[in-house]
Every structure is written in C-alpha cells, then in structure tokens.
Amino acid sequence: MVEKIEIKEPNNFDEKINDIVKNYSGKNIYVLIYGDWCPDCRNADPIINRHIEKKTNSVLVKASVGERPDISKRYVNSLYKHHSRIRLRKIPTLIKWSANQVNDKHLVENECENEKLLTEFFSD
Questions:
Q1: What topology is assigned to 3-121 in CATH?
Q2: How far apart are CA 40 and CA 55, in angstroms?
C-alpha cells in the first residue's frame, strides 16, 4: 500500500519533505505538485494513482500550489518555481524525490497522463 501525504502550503515544503525523507527512509518518495483548479491535474490524478498503487514501499506527497494565479502572474511568486529541486514551470509536475537532486526524475504537464511514460517512471 502507498502512503499518501498532503502538503497544502508551500511555505513549509522543505521542512515537511525533509521530515518525510527521514521518517520514510528506504521508501520511494514521489512528489506531485498540482492545483485543485487545474484541468490537467484533475485528468492526471487518477492515472498517476493507478500507477503508484502498483508500487509497494512508496510514499506519494501531494503538494498544492494553492489558489489559481492570475494568468499574467502565473507562478511568479511560487516557492516551487524558485525551489532548487523543483523549478516549477507547469503543473502537474511529478518528481521521484531521490537522496540527491542529481537523480531526481520529473514528468511535467501532459507527460503525467502518458501511460507509457508513467510505466517507465514508476518501473525502478
């Protein structure tokens, strides 16, 4: 079974993800950056869940970007955009969170709905 954890506020992301990495040592940790208002996120969510449910020994961290931004200010002030490991450009963004940034893997936007890419992403 996959453990699911939600981070509602980006302000405490680093603290929470560090606690999760420490508390779930030895497990695969996946981070999904999403918005409740985002159609692509809503489309990708059940597909991602179907793939991750096949993974044992895993944790899915769902981190919300918050309210829908004004299109002209999209992600300008987002902590996820400026985060050294995330560098958010579009949502949804799915990350396999590794022990070090070099090994992080990302799927972005429509890639999160692609069955083949998701199969490969969750295969290791």
A1: Glutaredoxin (3.40.30)
A2: 23
